[in-house]
Structures are given as C-alpha cells and as structure tokens.
Amino acid sequence: MTEIIHYQNFIANAFVPSDPSIEVRNPANNQLLARVPEASGEQVEAAIAAARHAQKNWAARPAIERAGYLRKIASKVRDNAERLAHLITAEQGKVLGLARVEVNFTADYLDYMAEWARRLEGEVLTSDRVGENIFLLRKPLGVVAGILPWNFPFFLIARKMAPALVTGNTIVIKPSEETPINCFEFARLVAETDLPPGVFNVVSGTGATVGQRLTRHAGVDLISFTGSVDTGSRIMAAAAPNITKLNLELGGKAPAIVLADADLELAVKAVTASRVINTGQVCNCAERVYVERKVADQFIEQMAASMAATRYGDPLAEGDLDMGPLINQAALDKVAQMVRTATGQGAEVVTGGAVADKGAGFHYQPTVLAGCGSDMAIMRQEIFGPVLPIQIVEDLDEAIALANDSEYGLTSSVYTRSLSAAMRASNELDFGETYINRENFEAMQGFHAGARKSGIGGADGKHGLYEYTHTHVVYIQI
Ligand code: TXE
C-alpha cells in the first residue's frame, strides 16, 4: 500500500504540527493521496503575524536581492520538474504533458518576475511651483493573502507570489483544498533556500474557514484571489469592513466567433484544444461558439469528429492521453446537469453527452452540442468541462452582440482571414483579452484581466506587477 503523506502548514519557514483532517484524492480514480491540515485560527494568525514581521526588512533589501530568491526557487522547481508534474497530475487530474508545461512555465514565470527587479520605476512629475520636485514612488502594500483555485494550482502560486515578493511584499498562500499537495511541495523547495522566515507562508484549509479568516483579517493588505464569481463576491463582502484591496480573477464564458472565411481546420483545432486541455477547466478557453451559417454544418461536423477523437481517462494509469477527469464529483454532476438541461431545451448532442464509464474517477465524454440558443444556461454559465455548445449566427454583428451579452468578460476569440473583421471584432468585443486565429493562452508579459463579473484588476506583465504596489507622491520644496 502507498504511504499516505500528512502535510503540515508552513509558517515562518517551519512546518508546524497541525491536525491533518482534509483528505486529498486522485480525481482519476478517487484514491486517497494525502491528508492536509485545516489550519486553526491561531495558525492563520501566526502566518499573518510572521508575514507582517518579515515585511519591513524584506522591503528594505534591494529589489535585485529579492529577485535572487525567486531565481533560486525557479531553479529548484526545474530540478524537481518531473516529480512535481507527477504530483500535479495525481491530485489535479491533468495529463502529464500539461503538468510538465505548468511546472516549467511556473519556473519561467518566477524568472520573468525576477527580471523586473531592475525595472521597477516611479515617476518624476512636473511641478507648478518654482523649486519644487514631485516624485511618485511605488511601494509594497505589505502582507498579501493569495487564495488559489485548483485548475492550475502550481502556476498560480508563482503568479501571486512572484510579483508580490519582487515588489517587497510578503505573502500567505491558501491553496485550494482540492489540490494542496503541490503547494506544500513548493514550500519544501522554498525551505531548502535561505529565504528569510515569514516572507512566504502556506496555510491550508477550506474556504469557509481558513479562506474567511484570511479575507476578514485587518492585517492583510491585498487579497489576490482566483476562483468563482460567487466566492469572489463573498470575498468582497469579507474585505469590506477593512477596505482591503482586492485583485480578483473570477473566470469566464469565452466566446469563439468562427466566420465564414475562417481557416476551419485551424479553428477546429484551437477550439478542440480549448475544451480538451485541462478537461475544459480553464478560465480563458472557449466556452461557447458562434459560427456563421454558411460554414456551420461543416464546422459542426469537423468539431464533432475532432472531439470524438479525444483520448481520455486516468492519466497516470493509461499513459499518453489528451484529457483526464474533472476535479471532483460536484464538477461532474454540474457538467452532466448542464448538458441535460440544454438537451431538454432543444440542444442536439452531436457527440458525447454523458458521464463516461471509466471506473471510480470523474470522467465526462468530450461533447459537442448543436442547435444552442442564447437564452440557454449552457450558453451563459461557466461549464468548466469538456462540453462545447454551438450557436449559428447570420453575421459578425450578431456574433459580437451575443458575445458581449454576458456577465463574464475575460477572454474572447475570432477566426477569420479578414483583417477588417478581426480589427472590428477587437474594437467591439468588450473583453479583457481577444485572440485572433490562435489558441486561448495568454503570455506572461501580457495582462490577464476581465471585464464585468470576470474580476477586478489583473495579473502578469508590468500592469500585473504594479497591482502589488501602492503609490506615494512626495512633494519636495527646496
Ligand atoms: O471555486 P471556489 P470551486 C469556477 C468554475 C468552477 C466553479 C466552482 O466555474 O466550476 O468556479 O469551483 C476558496 N472565502 N472556477 O468551488 O469556491 C477555496 O477554498 C475565501 C473558475 O472550486 O471559487 C479555493 O481555495 N476563500 C476559476 C478557492 O476559493 C474561499 C478557477 C476557489 O474556490 C471561500 C476555479 C470564502 N468564502 C473555479 N470559499 C478560474 N477563475 O479560473 C471558497 N474559497
């Protein structure tokens, strides 16, 4: 029998004995992998206090020194890449190839944010007065609480920690209760470096307990959260009494617009990848398609063939696959229910449409639904699974209007050979990101941010980095 590891919270560079009451299971076969703590109120207090205690000295160091620690951690991540990828696949369910990409991208992201150390800039402003200088300084906020989802759990540690640390903040991370193992393994790597105690801390637990304690705490200066709209809204309420600054990435319902002049082969490939990669559990990937009538039959046929060809199952047991399971039973039930409701409203199953018969894991068949309408829940709510609903439109105008008619506004994509159609769509789509003729994955030097309920603020690049600072304007009259 495999040994079940009991992980412990990481506070001030020490693994603190705690009651490991949360079970972590492999979503591909429901086997128990580890037990992790539900951090107590005292432990959350201790983690925030450690981060607060460390912050002033950390911020006083030259930025290039802080960046050096990020580079050391990146190098340790690379040295352990294969082991980490296997752990991520085991607890999250993504295929190994994608887990490897996640691990390497995480290391690259730490290095990328480290590069900003010599590029952090303030401003010198023109004064209205004689003999006065006005300086705009950028300063760290203080203590950051990073609350993570489970879909890219390892990368999200770096996406929050790297900009926080290089700008002089300290951080307390709460991983998702679904995928905490990789975060504790990351903490083990941090513990092998000489990062000062308190700069990086991990407390594990559920949202209702540890998440609430962190977000209500007056000692937290920024809550950086990635997850669902409902939880984002609860976090805003928890943050309200302290007016705590928020950075929220709350998912999407990305429209893909396929015009009659599109390279259909490319569109089918990219949209399939969107629904198959990470089992469709990606905030920026295509969740609904608007296809022009002239090419609709052809597109739907090719999409169905492409989705039906997906090799899926248990990634560690079955080897080379395209897709693993959904994260848990609740996710499987939600996807199955959404498909049932859609077919009840007249959507037609072109391929898939059912829970897969694959043992104890949470597997759903790659599914294409045609004949969808804009009033159906499947075209409006986040599916977060391998299901693609398709609606036929008459032209680009209709597609843009339907795409914008959503409470989400994170990403969008357009497939066309017409430069003017692409430019018009880019101007008129009210989203944080638009991808033209390419897969839906952002670059680390971009800015990942959403309109409407998709969030507040954003991540990555210069603009993401400065979310972890506040400005201080100094007027010097000489
Ligand atoms: O997310 P939650 P869930 C969407 C996706 C998915 C749905 C539900 O549609 O099907 O959300 O997923 C912590 N105070 N996304 O339930 O609840 C929780 O412990 C503080 C989109 O897993 O948002 C976990 O660490 N924290 C998304 C984190 O919030 C709380 C990625 C995310 O959990 C809390 C994931 C509270 N009151 C899901 N309640 C994206 N943007 O990509 C929960 N948490």
TrEMBL record:
GO terms for molecular function: aldehyde dehydrogenase [NAD(P)+] activity; identical protein binding; succinate-semialdehyde dehydrogenase (NAD+) activity. Pathway: Carbohydrate degradation. One of its GO terms (cellular component) is cytosol. Residues 18-474 form the Aldehyde dehydrogenase domain. It holds the Pfam family Aldedh. Keywords: Oxidoreductase. PANTHER family: SUCCINATE-SEMIALDEHYDE DEHYDROGENASE, MITOCHONDRIAL (PTHR43353:SF5). This is Aldehyde dehydrogenase. It comes from Pseudomonas brassicacearum.
